[in-house]
Design brief:
642 residues, three-stranded antiparallel β-sheet, five-stranded antiparallel β-sheet, 14 strands, 47% helix, elongated, alpha+beta
Length: 642
C-alpha cells in the first residue's frame, strides 16, 4: 500500500491548475489508484490535484522568511516577480477571488505601476485567482504590453462538463428538482468571443483540447432535440395511447351518469345509457364554443405583464401574457351580470351531460387540427416525446411543443382558462342546483366547503400563473389529445364531481367535523403553497437573504437543487400538499359511496406517475448530481414511504 504524503483534513498549499499560483487548500480525500488528491479551496471550489501540485505550508513560510533580502527596500535591484502578470510572491499570496490592480505602485507593501515594470523577454505568464474571477494576461512584461481580461478557468469548465456526463464534482454546499437558478457568470466561450487573445494562451495541452471538443459535442447532443422518431414511449406505448383515447371520454361519461343517479351503489353499475340523440344539443355546443371564445378574447387583451418562457432547443424564448387572474375577475363579473338579469344558470345542470359531450367534441376537433398542423413544423418545434411516427401515439401525446397562431399560444391558453375557470362556474351551478333540488334556502355546509376549497385552489393557480411556465406540461409535453381533453373536459367535469354528487346525495356534517376538514385543507394548502413559493423565490433570486439558510447541490447545467426547506423534506412537497387538499375536498361528501373519492384516487395515481416522469427527466438532465440529491432527500412524495 502506497504511503500518503498528506493526510485527509490537512491544510496544504495547492497549485491552481495551469498556473504557478499556490493557495491554501484542505485535503478532502485521496484516490489511491491515481494518487490524485481531492482538495477544497477557501472559496468552496473542489478539484482533484496531483501529489506533485501540493506542497506543505511550511515550505512557503520558509520562503517568506528569506524574501526580505530581495525586497527593493533592502536592495538597489528591482524585484522581477511583483508585476500583476507574474503573480504574487509566496509570502504575499492573495486570497482566491481577488485581483491586484495594475495601476498602483508595488514595494514590499504596494504594487508597482505599469511604468515601473522592467522589460523582459520571458514568455507570457497567465495568472488568475479562483473560478469565475478576474485575472491578467501579460504577453511581455513591459509597460506597453499589459492586457487585462476576465477568464473562466479552463479546468473548472471542463470539470463542470464532466459532471453532466460521468460524475459529480464536489460535496454539496449550496438543490432543487427543476426549481433552479442558472449561473450568470460568463463562460469561457463568451469571453473568448469578446477577447480572441484568450485562444492564443490556452493552458491545456493538445490532448486536453481534443478531449474538451469531444465533451462539447456530447453536450450539444444532450441540449439539442433528438432527430428521428421518439424511442422512449410512455402511457403503455402505442397500444396504451390508442386505448386511453377511448377510455378517458368513456370514464367521464360513466362518472357523470353514475353520480346523476339517485342510487349510486355498486349494484347500479353500469348506469343506464341514454339515447344517442339526447347527448347532442346544438344550443349547448354553441354555449360551450362561446365560453371558449370569451376566454380567448380576454387572453388577447393587452392587460397584465408579459413574461419570458424557458429557452427552447433553438435558443428562442417565447413571450406569454400573464392575465389569467384578470380573466377570472372578468368572468366573475359576467356571471354576476347574468345573475342580475336572472339568466337561468341551472340550464348547465339540466344539460350537464350534453355540455360534457360538446366539450369533448371541441377537444377532439382541436386535437385533429393540432396533429395536422404539426406535420408541417420543423424538427426543433416538436416535443421530445410526441414524434414516434405512430399516428395514434403522436395524436394522443401531441407532436408540436408550442402551437401558436400568431402570438396566441393554444396550449398555454387551454391550460388555465376555459377549463379551470369553467370548473368554478360548474361548482357554483351545483350550489344553486342543491338549493333547488333539496328545497333549501341556503346551501349545505358540505357544499359551501367544497366550493370554497376548490375556489381557493383555482384563484391560487391564476394568481401564480407565471409559475406554470416551468411545469412539465409547458416545457416538455406536446399539445395533443391528452392535454386538450384534460384541460377542456377532464378538469371542469371530473374535478367538480364532489359538488355534483352533493346535489342528489346531500350530506350534513357537524361544525366540529367541518372545522377539522377546514384544518386539513389549510394544512395541505400551506404545504402546497409554501413549497411552490419557495421554489419560485429561489428561481427568481437564489441570493435573496430570505433564502440564505437553504442549502443546495450545484449541477453541471449551471442550476442548483434544493436540499433543505420544503424540498429537503420530500422530493415533491407540492404533490404532497395536493393530495392532502384532494382528501379534504372529498370528506364533506361522507362515506356512503366511493364515487366522491374517485378524484383522490385518480390524483394519487396521476402524481405518482408524474413523479416517476420527473425522476427520469431529472436523472437524465442532472446525472450523478441528481443521484446525490436522492441520497440526501430519500422520500419522494410522502415521508416514510419510498
Amino acid at each position: 500500500m502506497s504511503r500518503r504524503k498528506f493526510a485527509v483534513g490537512e491544510l496544504v498549499m495547492g497549485r491552481w491548475p495551469g498556473s504557478s499560483l499556490y493557495y491554501e487548500v484542505k485535503v478532502v480525500s485521496l484516490d489511491a489508484s491515481s494518487h490524485h488528491y481531492t482538495v477544497k479551496y477557501k472559496d468552496g471550489t473542489t478539484l482533484e490535484l496531483k501529489e506533485s501540485d501540493l506542497k506543505a505550508i511550511s515550505t512557503f513560510k520558509n520562503k517568506k522568511k528569506g524574501s526580505a533580502s530581495n525586497s527593493p527596500s533592502r536592495s538597489g535591484s528591482r524585484s522581477r516577480s511583483r508585476s500583476p502578470g507574474r503573480g504574487p510572491s509566496p509570502g504575499r499570496r492573495p486570497s482566491p477571488g481577488t485581483r491586484r490592480s495594475p495601476g498602483r505602485r508595488r514595494s514590499p507593501d504596494k504594487s508597482r505601476s505599469p511604468d515601473e515594470i522592467p522589460a523582459s523577454d520571458e514568455p507570457a505568464i497567465l495568472s488568475y485567482s479562483s473560478p469565475y474571477q478576474s485575472g491578467y494576461i501579460v504577453k511581455d512584461v513591459t509597460k506597453e504590453d499589459i492586457l487585462e481580461m476576465n477568464l473562466t478557468p479552463l479546468k473548472v469548465r471542463e470539470k463542470l462538463r464532466e459532471n453532466s456526463i460521468s460524475r459529480y464534482n464536489g460535496e454539496p454546499e449550496n438543490t432543487e428538482d427543476d426549481m433552479s437558478q442558472k449561473n450568470t457568470r460568463p463562460t469561457y466561450d463568451q469571453e473568448a468571443e469578446r477577447n480572441p487573445v484568450l485562444l492564443q494562451y490556452s493552458l491545456r495541452p493538445r490532448k486536453e483540447e481534443i478531449k474538451t471538443k469531444e465533451l462539447e459535442q456530447r453536450e450539444e447532443k444532450y441540449l439539442e432535440k433528438p432527430t428521428g422518431n421518439t424511442k422512449d414511449l410512455e402511457f403503455g406505448g402505442k397500444l396504451g395511447a390508442f386505448f386511453l383515447t377511448l377510455i378517458l371520454p368513456a370514464t367521464v361519461f360513466s362518472l357523470l351518469l353514475m353520480v346523476g343517479q339517485k342510487d349510486v351503489s355498486i349494484m347500479a353499475f353500469p348506469p343506464a345509457i341514454p339515447a344517442v340523440e339526447t347527448l347532442w344539443d346544438l344550443n349547448v355546443f354553441g354555449i360551450c364554443l362561446l365560453w371558449v371564445l370569451f376566454q380567448a378574447m380576454i387572453y388577447l387583451l393587452p392587460v397584465g405583464k408579459v413574461a419570458d418562457g424557458v429557452p427552447l432547443s433553438n435558443g428562442r424564448r417565447l413571450k406569454y401574457r400573464i392575465n389569467g387572474f384578470h380573466a377570472f375577475l372578468l368572468s366573475s363579473a359576467a356571471i354576476a351580470v347574468a345573475l342580475y338579469f336572472k339568466i337561468n344558470l341551472l340550464y348547465v345542470y339540466d344539460h350537464f351531460l350534453q355540455f360534457a359531450v360538446s366539450a369533448t367534441i371541441i377537444s377532439l376537433l382541436l386535437s385533429i387540427y393540432l396533429y395536422i398542423r404539426s406535420q408541417k413544423k420543423a424538427e426543433d418545434e416538436l416535443s421530445l416525446g410526441g414524434n414516434s411516427g405512430n399516428v395514434f401515439y403522436d395524436f394522443f401525446i401531441g407532436r408540436e411543443l408550442n402551437p401558436r397562431i400568431g402570438t396566441f399560444d393554444l396550449k398555454y391558453f387551454c391550460e388555465l382558462r376555459p377549463g379551470l375557470i369553467g370548473w368554478v362556474l360548474i361548482n357554483l351551478v351545483m350550489l344553486f342546483a342543491e338549493m333547488k333540488v333539496n328545497e333549501r334556502d341556503v346551501p349545505s355546509v358540505s357544499m359551501i366547503l367544497v366550493n370554497s376549497f376548490q375556489l381557493l385552489y383555482v384563484v391560487d393557480a391564476l394568481w401564480n400563473e407565471e409559475a406554470i411556465l416551468t411545469t412539465m406540461d409547458i416545457v416538455h409535453d406536446g399539445f395533443g389529445f391528452m392535454l386538450a381533453f384534460g384541460d377542456l373536459v377532464w378538469v371542469p367535469f371530473v374535478y367538480s364531481l364532489q359538488a355534483f354528487y352533493l346535489v342528489n346525495h346531500p350530506n350534513e356534517i357537524s361544525w366540529p367535523v367541518a372545522t377539522a376538514v377546514v384544518a386539513l385543507n389549510t394544512f395541505g394548502y400551506a404545504v402546497f403553497r409554501g413549497a411552490n413559493s419557495q421554489k419560485n423565490a429561489f428561481r427568481r433570486n437564489p441570493h435573496d437573504p430570505k433564502l440564505a439558510n437553504l442549502k443546495t447541490i450545484p449541477t453541471a447545467t449551471g442550476k442548483c437543487l434544493l436540499v433543505t426547506g420544503w424540498w429537503g423534506f420530500v422530493r415533491h412537497p407540492n404533490y404532497l400538499g395536493d393530495i392532502i387538499m384532494a382528501l379534504a375536498w372529498s370528506l364533506p361528501c361522507g362515506f356512503n359511496h366511493i364515487l366522491p373519492y374517485f378524484y383522490v384516487m385518480y390524483f394519487i395515481c396521476l402524481l405518482v406517475h408524474r413523479e416517476a416522469r420527473d425522476e427520469r427527466q431529472c436523472k437524465k438532465k442532472y446525472g450523478v448530481a441528481w443521484e446525490k440529491y436522492c441520497q440526501r432527500v430519500r422520500y419522494r412524495i410522502v415521508p416514510y414511504l419510498y
